[in-house]
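User: quick one - fold this with iron/sulfur cluster bound?
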Amino acid sequence: MSIDVEKIVSEALENGFNFATSLDVSTMNPLPEVRDMCAADKCHAYNKNWSCPPACGTVDECAARIKEYTNGVIVQSTIELEDEFDFEGIAELGKRHGETSIKFNKYLHEKYPDMKILPLTAGGCTQCKECTYPDKPCRFPDRMMSPLEGYGIFVSDLCTKNDIPYNRGKGTLTYVGAFLFA
Ligand code: SF4
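Assistant: Sure. Structure tokens for the protein plus iron/sulfur cluster:
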């Protein structure tokens, strides 16, 4: 199907992201080294969610899934922190980025029902109050949002390759997501 990426970039901004631009899908290069960091479980999501490793598949399986997509947008949510210990601000940004990602993902599915969509964001999928993993199947497998890192994507490198800053200045913090289309 024909996909108007520039229109979707505008729609990403209208849905609440602070920045968005088109994504060159060939820059999505899953790396085992990035994926290995998930196993350290610093985010406490490893092996706790269908969207995260190991349930989201091997690095090769993630790479093969990405290859099914032809277009995309990269999105960012940014906050100015009071200082480096502004943990409330960090938590607020994580919540806002997660909620905006869910909202935009829902918007895309409703507006473009014939488009195949792969939503990738920061952190594990939070669409359900509690993930069904591992006892029952995912409730919304077509809307599940995996973390970019879980797919082995080196996020700052992805931003650089798509001409969008990863660091938006001293005292700021930015979370990144990507939505792929076919
Ligand atoms: S949609 Fe629900 S069940 Fe599926 S991965 Fe996300 S939180 Fe888990």
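One thing worth noting: Residues 47 and 54 are 6 Å apart (CA to CA).
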